[in-house]
Amino acid sequence: MSATPQALPSASHNTMSVGLVVLVLSLLMGIQPVTTDLYLPALPALTEGFGAPMAQAQLTLTALLLAFGISQLFWGPLSDRFGRRPILLWGLCAYTLAAVGSAFAPSMLMLIVWRTLQGAAMGAAVMCARAIVRDLYSPVDGARAMSRGLTGLGVIACCGPLLGGLLSDLFGWRVALLAPAVFGAGTLAVIALRMQETAPLGRTGLPHAARPQAATLLHNWLAIIRHPTFIAWSALSACSYGGLFTFLASSSFVFIRVLGLSKTQYGLVMFSISVVYVLSTFLCRMLLPRFGVRRTVALAAVLSLTGGTLMGVLALAGVQSFWALMVPFCLFMMGHGVHQPCSQSGAVGPFPLTAGTASALNGFLMMVAAFGMGGWLGTHLDGTVMPLALGVWFWGALIALTAWTLVQRHGEPRRG
Questions:
Q1: Local confidence band at 382 (pLDDT 50, 70, 90 cut-offs)
Q2: Is residue 206 in some structural domain?
Q3: Is residue 369 a part of any domain in this protein?
Q4: End-to-end alpha-carbon separation of the chain, Å?
């Protein structure tokens, strides 16, 4: 493996610097924690403000993520046909407008509608980020490139909940919902002014198999979803994200209502988790050259399983405290920071000419896991730490099972 990612010969003649590529990836992937994490400290307050039940409050997150997952199935093939840049421009425009609509929503129902539209538009950004990595880098080097971008995501995630808590405490929850609009507008400016097209062969030179006619699109979807390498890595990314989502969807209620933290203190909790995530992306880049991709995720699965098991056992033993949640989840997040760059790049690795479609399917499967978990949490949050703890334990066990079986058998990245 080379020390730095190398451009694929089949990639477009792209002259963006490495620093600019990392910035673009960081912003595009960072839009997800900005959208999901920044408003979490304000979630209990906006629930009370609208006088809505907890199940409806959960829909502001789960509906967003369902739309995020489904929309990628459309954004992906369109980006393969027309290129990444135009899809990003349209998607980011829609995202910014939807974020403004969310901030001024007159009711919980309208907030859910605007957040759903926001999630659909966000799909364009995150899907294109994964596809851009495959456009520019070989599958193995793509894991390291993705890790660099996810380090940037982690830095953004560090600031999001802390900023959200401060904005909610000082100015109210509507200002916390308006902050993503500012981020979306800034990202749109970077893409419009600095980003070049990365899709291979340009807009009109894609082979027939990459064009989104219905029959061809269905054929591409089936070919990707049946590929054992795609199945292995997508299962890992879905399980890992499922564990993170369990924490995101329930932690504000648990830490604020059950453990009594203020919104600003909860923001500091999320900041700490994000710092751990950033450190774990550096760990990923240290392990990859020495152990390779499959052994790296196998080692990281030990952290995932240990963290989940410790959290679950402490909860079953009746230990309901700040540290009984934080220490185990930090272990889980160390594994998550390794699993995500490896699994997301590995899932699109075999598909250089349909990277957008493969990225879309990978993202869709992650969101299916999140939506299912969100629905379960909406009916099981009971004023204790138990749903959060058992949920993370469940995903930690699935991560280990996947990393030690499917990935070891089918996860060897193949150059396109």
A1: confident
A2: no
A3: yes
A4: 16
**Residue 153 is assigned to a structural domain of this protein:** yes
pLDDT tens digits along 233-285: 999 999 999 999 899 888 888 998 889 888 778 878 888 888 898 899 889 88
Give the length of the chain. Answer: 416
Residues of the domain holding 225: 18-200+211-410
Q: Count CA atoms within 13 Å of residue 292 on its CB side.
A: 7
CATH number at residue 370: 1.20.1250.20
Per-residue confidence (pLDDT) for residue 208, from 0 to 100:
42
Question: 210 pLDDT band (50/70/90 cuts)?
Answer: very low
Query: How far apart are alpha carbons 25 and 237 in whole angstroms?
Result: 18
Structure tokens at 410: 């089918």
What's the mean pLDDT in 374-388?
A: 85
pLDDT per residue over 99-152, tens digit each? 999 999 888 889 999 999 999 999 999 999 988 888 887 766 777 778 888 888
Compute the CA torsion angle 337, 341, 347, 350 (nearest 10 deg): -150
Count up the domains in the chain and report the number.
1
Tokens of 349: 């690795």
Mean pLDDT of all residues belonging to the chain: 84
